[in-house]
Amino acid sequence: MNTMYRRLDDQQIASTLARLRDRIAERFPGSGLSHVADELRSLRDETTALVAYVQRPHWPIRIGAGAAIAAMLAVLVVVVSYLPLSGPADPAWLAITYATARAVYSGTSQRCRRELSDLADRLAAVAEDEINTARQLSGPS
Fold first, then answer.
1. Same domain? 67 vs 132
2. pLDDT digits over 56-82, tens only?
3. How far apart are CA 139 and CA 131, in angstroms?
4. What is the domain range of residue 28?
């Protein structure tokens, strides 16, 4: 599948927003719509900074997560060593390990999901405002 249209180019977005702002300022000087275009540009700047922050490796978080995982594994080894294992196939340790790994992964990914969801909500609100403003400027149909 071609993924060319699944990625957004920050420079293309910036140039499109600059052209949009210039066209609006040219056609509707001093209008509220030019403020919307400026807001879109500032939202693009915030989004670019947020994306750069999310993409960057956060070593304190990684080290902390690694230490927490190591500590949990150590506790798991101690607990399993005290369990009376009956027979060759006792899957209790596997279930505990899976549950621990799942909890750690879920906890670390929640923050990124929340930030991206907030960003999507903000972008949707700006798009809705832009559509409503365009409808108001075009007048009744």
1. yes
2. 888 888 899 899 999 988 888 888 777
3. 13
4. 1-56
Question: Residue 65 in 3-state DSSP?
Answer: helix
Shared domain for 88 and 124, answered yes or no, is: yes
Which structure tokens are listed for 6?
A: 């699944």
- Amino acid in position 58: H
CB-CB contact of 129 with 35 (8 Å): no
* 61: helix, strand or coil: helix
The domain boundary, picked from 39, 56, 73, lies at: 56
Q: In the chain, how many domains are there?
A: 2
**Burial grade of 37 (CB within 10 A; 0-12, 13-18, 19 or more):** buried
Tokens (6 digits) for 18:
């600059």
The answer to whether residues 63 and 45 belong to one domain is: no
pLDDT at residue 141 tops 60: no
Pair 51, 78 in one domain: no
Please report, for residues 39, 48, 49, 127, the alpha-carbon distance to residue 53 in angstroms, rounded to integers and kept in the order given: 21, 9, 6, 24
